[in-house]
What does this fold into?
Amino acid sequence: MISEHSDHDALAARLAAIDAQPLEDRAAAFSQLSEELRARLDGTGVIDDVAAASTFATTTAGVTA
It folds into this structure.
């Protein structure tokens, strides 16, 4: 199980990566993240590690720190 600290770090990294994207891409990525978080809070969606990693890779593609 992922710790709360790891979840926080992963979210912070994902937000930073999204924020570094061009405006058009940022809007879509924030919308996708919002839907994922809503599903988690509602208990209607379970995001497994593979899906989360895939989504993270998609939203951070081409972004350098």
